[in-house]
């Protein structure tokens, strides 16, 4: 129930729609009950049951006699309208019933009208909130999660809320009020018979709660398995070339089918348990109606003046008792839906409640530029158990190009992850202009940084919009100038729509070298004072590497650059080369100095010269 309360918090911005929904439902329940009560005078006319009309307008005296007052009031006005004519009296009552049903349905439409805005607004806000939190969370969170599971939460779980939790908002007022008004009317008609009905209510509640007990657990298994097959689908689409190249279609197909079979079995168990709701409440309702028929029939046949119930009142009472079944079934479904939706709400809340360790401090500093140096002071860092960097210290002056080299796993890319604050150091500190980056707002820190990664990450959009991620208000001329600096204009100008050309999913319409030059152009357009290049040419062929290397050299002019290099031929002009081994600096200096030392760097260069 706590998850249901959390979801209801998102309804606050839509209070006016909620209020309109509640008021409309009150009238819906009221007119629904009155439309059945109005049957009694019609039945009295048909059965020729005569009751002397009051000579004056009846006046309300006390609550105990409200039933007699309502009947006398209606008879008085009906007689006044019809002049005692039975046909006119029948027409009057029929018109009254039609009006009641019309008002009931108008109120029902208005309730649904307001609910549309309330429900869709809540779903939109929850989905936006989950996406926003997903973007804000650190990379470490996603290294432990399946992408498909995250997608399942943003799509499937939110949809589950739409069809499980939120419909409960529709019945939370309407159905209980319908039952309440109906019971009041039944109590007025026959207190003895209504007390008999009350015996069935706790029995029905107990049976329903027993059936719905395991729905949340079963629903959780369904949603978890949905995340598994969506993950398989996402991995398949991402790695389709490798899957086909290694003839692995069958393995992935088997993995996908295994997950969907589990989903099939879990869903069957869940839905079959859920399907028990309607027939169970129907059977219990019929048992209740049967009991009323037996007990009420005896009251009609009884000669006791204190318990006697006339035929028309009994028929109306039976109609009202059956009228309770519809809202009772709706409430039963609502209880089941809350149980089922609880698992979805819990999975969504898990993301929303996840703490972001990289969140800005309360009094974080906004920096406007980069002025002097970057300092790594005795930093140590581990992703899980083993330290990737150990007590590392490094100074980078403004305007310097510093290259980080070393074998895979030596900690090069980790330094890039730390300076961009994708992760926090475990020990030590990183300073920019003497300020610990943990005390700087993430936004202003990243404004000073340009990032070009080994894998060119582009989006299914135009070249222009991909580059404008670097600078939101960039003009076409600025974009073209950035493309020229990145050696990309030479192929962009020949595309059908130039910078407006869509490059496909992940830039799939372009070659690897072209994609990398576009990612460099994006960094150039941003024009940050510090560039971080994480093995930007390692995945390219020789010709593409040459073009990209020229682009990188153009970009690094008059900037502070941290270059993580795999191919050592690309960093020989660096002001400082830092050699890493198992998370520690083993050598540093210029290219010629390190070659002369004949140490680790010399061996790395020699190894690559034979490749």
Automatic annotation (TrEMBL):
<keyword id="KW-0067">ATP-binding</keyword>
<dbReference type="GO" id="GO:0005886">
    <property type="term" value="C:plasma membrane"/>
</dbReference>
<dbReference type="InterPro" id="IPR017871">
    <property type="entry name" value="ABC_transporter-like_CS"/>
</dbReference>
<protein>
    <submittedName>
        <fullName>ATP-binding cassette, subfamily B, MsbA</fullName>
    </submittedName>
</protein>
<keyword id="KW-0472">Membrane</keyword>
<feature type="transmembrane region" description="Helical">
    <location>
        <begin position="179"/>
        <end position="208"/>
    </location>
</feature>
<dbReference type="InterPro" id="IPR003593">
    <property type="entry name" value="AAA+_ATPase"/>
</dbReference>
<dbReference type="InterPro" id="IPR039421">
    <property type="entry name" value="Type_1_exporter"/>
</dbReference>
<dbReference type="Pfam" id="PF00664">
    <property type="entry name" value="ABC_membrane"/>
</dbReference>
<feature type="domain" description="ABC transporter">
    <location>
        <begin position="374"/>
        <end position="607"/>
    </location>
</feature>
<dbReference type="GO" id="GO:0015421">
    <property type="term" value="F:ABC-type oligopeptide transporter activity"/>
</dbReference>
<dbReference type="InterPro" id="IPR027417">
    <property type="entry name" value="P-loop_NTPase"/>
</dbReference>
<keyword id="KW-0547">Nucleotide-binding</keyword>
<dbReference type="InterPro" id="IPR003439">
    <property type="entry name" value="ABC_transporter-like_ATP-bd"/>
</dbReference>
<dbReference type="GO" id="GO:0005524">
    <property type="term" value="F:ATP binding"/>
</dbReference>
<keyword id="KW-0812">Transmembrane</keyword>
<dbReference type="InterPro" id="IPR036640">
    <property type="entry name" value="ABC1_TM_sf"/>
</dbReference>
<feature type="domain" description="ABC transmembrane type-1">
    <location>
        <begin position="22"/>
        <end position="340"/>
    </location>
</feature>
<feature type="transmembrane region" description="Helical">
    <location>
        <begin position="18"/>
        <end position="39"/>
    </location>
</feature>
<dbReference type="InterPro" id="IPR011527">
    <property type="entry name" value="ABC1_TM_dom"/>
</dbReference>
<feature type="transmembrane region" description="Helical">
    <location>
        <begin position="89"/>
        <end position="111"/>
    </location>
</feature>
<keyword id="KW-1133">Transmembrane helix</keyword>
<dbReference type="GO" id="GO:0016887">
    <property type="term" value="F:ATP hydrolysis activity"/>
</dbReference>
<dbReference type="Pfam" id="PF00005">
    <property type="entry name" value="ABC_tran"/>
</dbReference>
